[in-house]
Each structure stands twice: as structure tokens, then as C-alpha cells.
Amino acid sequence: QTSSGLVLDIGANVGSHSLVLGQSQQHTVWAFEPQAAPCAALRRSISANRLNNIEVLQTALGSTEGPSSLCSMRGVVLGSGAARIGKGGEHVHMTTLDSLWNARNRPHIAFVKMDVEGFEQEVLGGGRACLSARPPMVFEDWGSATGTYLKDSCGYDHIIRLRHPWFQFATRDFLAYHHENIALSRFVSLHGHEEV
Q1: CA–CA gap between residue 65 and residue 43 (Å, rounded)
Q2: 2 and 111 in contact (C-beta within 8 Å)?
Q3: Do 164 and 138 contact (CB within 8 A), yes or no?
Q4: pLDDT in tens, 68-126
Q5: Which strands make up the sheet holding 90-95, listed edge to edge?
């Protein structure tokens, strides 16, 4: 449950999160996915589910704007999301979150989900103004670099490692939030997730 407003799904892939978030008409979802095949699959799913509050933005997000390329791992199944910004591969356009947010009259952001395969700091660096209100953010991280960056450079003061309800081990999924969001801090304490 998030407050009404804009939800950012950064690294949407085929839209498993966007489609769930889009079920609530109190949200508008911007689904960012630079790859053509997952974008096409997501657009088909949006149409099949008759959702009119999800906008698919076929662009990569980073700290700069311009042409880039995205390398997919060979033999990866559509929907797994295993791709990285780099040399070679599919040509994609890159923009910054701040540029897009400013061009669209700075809407209120209620929630952010980010899964960008190690490109988190570049995305965050290009979205400093957009994220200055510190909306709750779920992100995937293999180490501690993104959480540290969110605390040191973006003003978040809590990073929580999320635990999967039916697995014994901790996941790579984290929740970043600011203490001023009292409702969210209640949610976290009730579910017993681990602060890092």
C-alpha cells in the first residue's frame, strides 16, 4: 500500500511489478524499460488487462543523456532482466530521471521500484532532484553500495533487507525510506525485516 501519486518502475522488464501496481487506479505508473522485446511484451500485457494508468517509457535511465547500448546475456529467457548498459548489443536511448520529471511538471512520486543490474548509482545520480523528497524505494543490490549511496548522497536514513515470506535466507531486495514516513516505518517493524 502506497500513497496516491506516481509510481516509478525503473527496470520494468516485462512488467510483473508495473501490472500489479497498475491495478490500483490511485496510481499512475511510469514503467522504464530500454529493451525492445520486454517493452513489446509489457505493452501487450497492459492492453490485455485494459490498464490505462501505465505508461511504458522505452528508455534507459542514467546520469547523462544520449545514445547508449544494452548488452543482454546470451540464452537468457525473456523476463529474467539479465542485461547491462555497456558496449555492443541493442542500441538504446538514455535520459536522466530529473530531465523527464522536470519536462512533465514535477509530479509527486509516491513509490520507486528499481532493478537495473548494477547501474543504480548512475540512475540515482541522474535523479537527485526528482528523488529529493525521498519516496519509499525498493531496490535490488548484490552488495551494500546502493544502500550506502542512498544514505550518504540522497538523504535516506533507513535501509532494510527484505526477507521473503517463505524462504529462510535474506534476499537481495532492500527497502530505503526516510523516518518521516511513519506509516512505512510501522509496516517495516511489523514485518520484522532486518536493518542494514
Answers
A1: 24
A2: yes
A3: no
A4: 887 765 544 444 455 556 666 788 889 999 999 999 999 999 999 999 888 899 999 99
A5: 60-61, 90-95, 66-72, 83-85
Tell me the C-alpha distance between 20 and 46, whole Å: 11
| Contact by Cβ (8 Å): 176, 185 | no
Phi-psi domain of 13 (left: phi exceeds 0; alpha: psi -120 through 50; beta: other): left
Retrieve residue 165's grid coordinates. 515470506
Q: How far, in Å, CA of 59 to CA of 148, rounded?
A: 26
- One-letter amino acid for residue 108 of the chain: H
Task: Kindly provide the residue ranges of all beta strands, DSSP E only, lying in the chain, ordered along the sequence.
Answer: 5-10, 27-32, 54-57, 60-61, 66-72, 83-85, 90-95, 109-114, 137-140, 158-163, 170-177, 194-195
Measured CA to CA, the distance from residue 87 to residue 12 in angstroms comes to 21
Q: Tell me how far apart the alpha carbons of residues 6 and 111 are, in angstroms, rounded to a whole number.
A: 7
The residue to which cell 501496481 is assigned? 21
In tens, the pLDDT along 58-80 reads 999 999 998 888 776 554 444 44
